[in-house]
Design goal:
This protein is α/β, with parallel strands linked by helices. The protein has helices at about 10-35, 55-70, 75-85, 90-100, 115-130, 150-160, 195-200, 230-240, 250-260, 270-285, 290-295, 300-315, 340-350, 385-390, 425-450, 455-460, 475-485, 505-515, 540-550, 570-575, 610; strands spanning about 105-110, 140, 165, 175-180, 200-205, 220-225, 315-320, 320-330, 355-360, 365-375, 395, 400-405, 460, 470, 490-495, 500-505, 555-560, 565-570, 625-630. The strands form four sheets. A seven-stranded mixed sheet has the order 11-12-10-9-8-7-19, with helices on both faces. A six-stranded parallel sheet has the order 3-2-1-4-5-6. Strands 13-18-17 form a three-stranded antiparallel sheet. A hairpin with a 2-residue loop joins β7 and β8. α12 runs parallel beside α13 (about 340-350).
């Protein structure tokens, strides 16, 4: 109180009244606790205890009346409570299983599900919903373990319109039929593999050819592996034949599935069946806006970190003309979408083949995810699917993967009394083990690569028609040869067969415009171009491709004495890579073999032919060693 203020003491009567009220409250609480048995052990809380007035008769009548007037709605929670009352001795787990138990069919995607796997699974579930013998029970789509980031994002918005169920909501004893899509090996089903033994029938649909490890052919009642670009195509064809119409969301998902595994119809495994299925889905009003939105891969923070770690460690080795890039990275936990990182690294490395090993932790174990990618040209030399089979994986010829565990010895703790020795971190040990795996992969890969083709293997022989002409021949004779065989240039040789130059059709046209018809015929050797880029028969195809891309379109092949042996054209190189089944030059005579036909010098109009055929410094030929390291 302020200085000088008087403090009025509390009356004694007020203090007594407050203490009396507090004692009354404590007495009431003690009575309720003792009469309701709150302080007794659980075994002594008898449900038949009747001591103490719990509810008045009027309260009971009021409660009974309210229940009659407002019947309670049956919900899963009330059904669960009723089951517990009927079976008080049963465990909560068994009661829960009884609650959700229902006969059903299940379609399994692969672990780390991609769009093709999800789309094919939903399409098969849709087909079974209209198929007699399957439609009597519901069909659920189950993802055994995880999904690609783009697929997870799609499910975030569309899960409610798709027949997708969680793995733990399915009782294995209730499964009648199991469908497996985009996989014909049990290794790709993860924890759902035991369901195959529980099911009454197993149906497999896949487009991965040549699966050897853990094939489901022996346990499947229906086994379909077809040479198409996408598993979704196989199921969509069956929907179309059964006249089952997908709704817009389903058709959109199926389009995403076909596009994912065919690269938008750009991969070499794409077939006419994939294009026809895609067109049918577009006719069923598939949303192109949704396809554009969800087909775009978004790079996560973990992916960017893994990519940043991989770039400085990337190493490239050339074996028999095939450049192979490899890299090992370590991440603290599993990073979804590693395949996208591998594709990006293949592009950045400008290599023909990429092998990536990523180590990750899962509990007390360390795993290595192997991912292989190859360009179409290298696909004729290597088979990544066969390489990954050595490590329990699989896939396609140019895109395959595998996963294997690392057996790292645990580090023993050191005695604090002894001098501390530097120990290798666990991540470094896993990274070293991953690099050892990479070396094994490359060793298997290098054994597949055949000897590199040379100019002598590819060239069209010099004695083929429409290839050469004598230096003493007239310009008119050269023109007749070109027009007869549909060529644009001829190589000029002397009487000894030595290469002297080249004469082109536009040179002949210019000469004839200036030439007087009454004058003596002009000879080829007076109008030919003498400066040419020449190659030896032993020069590699990689060196030839460099010349074709930067110098000329037709390269003469000569020996040490400059004797003309043949010519290598763009057509010869294309045939060597087997990019086409049939290829023929325009305006070529039909009775000539296409491989020995002349190639067109289809250069831009602004090219200066005089400058083009000047002698230029060519890059050195490939080293004789089969493998060389590139910085």
């Amino acid at each position: 109180p302020p200085s000088g203020a008087l403090v009025k003491p509390l009356p004694v009567l007020s203090v007594v009244k407050g203490m009396s009220a507090m004692l009354s409250l404590v007495s009431c609480v003690a009575y309720v606790v003792t009469t309701r048995g709150f302080l007794l052990p659980s075994a002594e809380k008898a449900p038949h205890r009747q001591e103490g007035p719990l509810l008045s008769s009027s309260s009971l009548r009021s409660s009974s009346s309210s229940r009659r007037m407002s019947p309670q709605r049956t919900t899963p929670t009330t059904r669960y409570a009723a089951a517990k009352r009927r079976h008080p001795t049963s465990s909560s787990k068994s009661t829960n299983n009884a609650m959700i138990s229902e006969p059903c069919n299940v379609v399994l995607t692969t672990t780390n599900c991609d769009f093709d796997s999800l789309a094919a699974a939903c399409a098969l579930a849709r087909l079974w919903s209209k198929t007699p013998g399957k439609s009597e029970v519901p069909t659920h789509v189950v993802l055994p373990r995880g999904a690609m980031p783009s697929v997870a994002r799609f499910l975030t918005y569309h899960k409610h319109v798709l027949p997708v169920r969680g793995f733990k909501t399915i009782d294995a004893d209730d499964i009648r039929a199991v469908g497996v899509v985009d996989a014909s090996s049990a290794a790709r089903l993860g924890r759902a593999t035991p369901w195959l033994e529980k099911a009454e029938s197993v149906h497999v649909f896949d487009h991965h050819l040549g699966v050897q490890n853990g094939s489901l052919a022996s346990v499947a009642d229906e086994f379909h592996v077809e040479a198409v670009g996408s598993t979704t195509t196989m199921i969509v064809e069956r929907l179309r034949d059964a006249k089952v119409e997908p709704d817009q969301a389903e058709a959109t998902l199926y389009v995403l599935g076909i596009r994912a595994d065919t690269g938008g119809l750009a991969y070499e495994s794409t077939t006419l069946r994939d294009a026809e299925a895609l067109c049918w889905l577009l006719a069923k009003d598939a949303s192109q806006a949704a396809v554009a939105e969800f087909s775009l891969e978004r790079v996560s923070t973990e992916q960017r970190q893994a990519l940043a770690e991989a770039l400085p460690r990337l190493k490239t080795v050339t074996c028999r003309g095939v450049s192979v890039a490899s890299v090992a990275v370590s991440t603290p936990r599993y990073v979804p979408g590693l395949a996208g990182i591998a594709d990006e690294l293949l592009s950045l490395a400008a290599a023909d083949v990429l092998i990536m090993a990523c180590t990750t932790s899962q509990g007390n174990k360390r795993w290595v995810d192997l991912i292989g990618r190859a360009r179409p040209k290298a696909g004729q030399s290597v088979d990544l699917r066969a390489v990954m089979h050595h490590f329990g994986g699989g896939g396609h010829q140019r895109a395959a993967a595998a996963a294997l565990s690392l057996d790292l010895e645990p580090q023993e703790p050191q005695d604090p009394q002894e001098p501390q020795e530097p120990q290798e971190p666990q991540d470094q040990g896993a990274l070293a083990a991953a690099n050892e795996v990479l070396e094994q992969v490359k060793e298997i890969l290098f054994e597949q690569i055949p000897p590199e083709l040379t100019a002598g293997d590819l060239m069209t022989p010099g004695d083929a028609p429409g290839i050469r002409i004598d230096a003493d021949s007239t310009v008119d004779e050269a023109k007749d040869v070109l027009l007869s065989y549909g060529g644009t240039s001829l190589f000029v040789v002397d009487k000894l067969g030595e290469l002297r130059g080249q004469i082109k059709l536009n040179d002949i046209v210019k000469t004839q415009k200036k030439h007087n018809p009454k004058a003596e015929p002009r000879r080829v050797k007076g109008h030919m171009r003498s400066e040419l880029t020449r190659v030896r028969p032993t020069d590699t195809i990689a060196y030839l491709e460099h010349l074709l891309q930067t110098h000329v379109g037709r390269i003469p092949v000569v020996d040490e004495d400059n004797v003309f042996l043949g010519v290598v054209t763009r057509l010869d190189v294309l045939n060597a890579h087997r990019l086409y089944d049939r290829l023929q030059v325009a305006n070529q005579r039909s009775d000539l073999p296409s491989r020995r036909a002349e190639d067109h010098d289809d250069l831009p109009e602004d090219h200066d032919d005089d400058v083009l055929f000047e002698e230029k410094a060519a890059p050195p030929a490939a080293a004789p060693a089969e493998i060389r390291l590139l910085d």
